[in-house]
Amino acid sequence: MFRRHGLRATAAACCATALLATPALAGSDGPGAPGAGDEYFPGYGNGGYDVSHYDIQVRYQPADDHLQGTTTIVAKPTQNLTAFNLDFALTTKSVRVNGVPAQFSQAGMELTVTPPVTLPEGSLATFVVEYEGVPSTVEVDGLTPWIRTSDGALAVGEPEIAAWWFPSNDHPRDKATFDVSVAVPDGTEVVSNGVNTKNSSLAGWTTWQWRTTKPTATYLAFIGVGQYGISTKTGAFGQPFVSAYSDNLGELEGAAKASVERTPEVVEFLSGLLGEYPFEAQGGLVSSEGMNFALENQTRPTYSHKFFRNGANTSVVVHENAHQWFGDSVSVDTWRNIWLNEGFASYAEWLWSEKQGTGTAQELFDYYYGRHPADDPFWQVLPGDPGAGAVFDAAVYDRGAMTVQALRNVVGDAVLQDIVRTWGSEKRYSTGTIEEFIALAEQRSGKQLDELFNTWLFTKGKPPVGEATGVPPRVNHVMVAPPKAVAELDRTHALLHEH
């Protein structure tokens, strides 16, 4: 997936009136950190507490993009907490901690809250935040990820979007379950993660309620508001399969449906490779405007209409659903580890091509390896440490996928499958690092893989031909005839990298 990113401002004081906090006990109490410690995005996330659940209730008016809401956060302090931060960009009206009004200040994307009494480590805590704003007009550090459309909005983005519609601990390290309730004018649809539990209408407004019961990273929680045709059917493994297509897709509607409606087939295929599907529902949403990318929102990937301009495109469906394992169930521990998301999702496209008979993974490896000469800047981006400005660079995707094929060449098909299935099982609903994956690969294969991973992930330049690097001798030159799958893969990845 691709989305813009930027560093957040750290918390700063601004005026607020509320109860004073009880003084901290020297040496034992203190405020939570204003960031989760991510080296690429230091201000993202927060320390001092762990969230278990978000209850998000918002009222949204498409006519003027006005949103007002109340979010209740169920959390557990991980220290004796005298103050804490939430990541949030809209205007905060009030904050209650354990039912009592709390002092707060807000600057940039940091909402700093001082509860009236210290929150004991390990206790049950609730944070209730009331807020409002016009999300499309809110810019922080040059970012405005909220997408306003002619008939509604899309809260879709990576690595940031949550702060434009609900306060949170906005980092993949702190996953939680979600209840999302959105009231919109009658005749407007709302799509979110998981399962639609209830709809109700009153006084010209319809409230849509969605629930996801598996741990979810905050950037993977989303809403799509507008004019959509929504269908719920039985998908793979008897689960709900929810698809939503904008009413304004026009001539692209057929191609979009011919692609996204294959999601259950894709999920069955990926389950055979990666292990049990980790969530409670499946599906997809296709927008008709506002988006130039696709995103692996948990249980419900969201696609730009542009992916279907040239006909059906199952490659992007495979890519975003592969993220349900690599990215959603097992998320990056920090954003430096993005190869674990994009390299494996891109490689899943190659395996789908292999299944469809449009080009084997090795043929695609050969093509992309030969396509980029040694002096191509493509080889100067390190998939294992691309830098904050290149998290979604083409090399993270394509060189990342080549890395997986190189690993396959060295360890063999059966061992590679064992590695990825073990990774998904042992790391389910948590996070992982590249170093942990390498250690697992060496343990399961019984091979020393330092040269392979150092060369492909952490060394600038075109990896040399050799047994230890997984590059067979025949790929020294550009292939004359690329596999049939290349045209679709290129179209897909061009959009995945597009702003």
UniProtKB/TrEMBL annotation:
Catalytic activity, as annotated: Release of an N-terminal amino acid, Xaa-|-Yaa- from a peptide, amide or arylamide. Xaa is preferably Ala, but may be most amino acids including Pro (slow action). When a terminal hydrophobic residue is followed by a prolyl residue, the two may be released as an intact Xaa-Pro dipeptide
EC number: 3.4.11.2
Keyword field: Hydrolase, Metal-binding, Metalloprotease, Protease, Signal, Zinc
Domain of life: Bacteria
Occurrences of domain Peptidase M1 membrane alanine aminopeptidase (ranges): 311-456
GO biological process: proteolysis
Enzyme class of the recorded protein, top EC level: hydrolase
Signal peptide bounds: 1-26
SUPFAM superfamilies: Leukotriene A4 hydrolase N-terminal domain (SSF63737), Metalloproteases ('zincins'), catalytic domain (SSF55486)
Family: Belongs to the peptidase M1 family.
Entry protein name: Aminopeptidase N
Biological source species: Saccharopolyspora spinosa
Lineage of producing organism: Bacteria, Bacillati, Actinomycetota, Actinomycetes, Pseudonocardiales
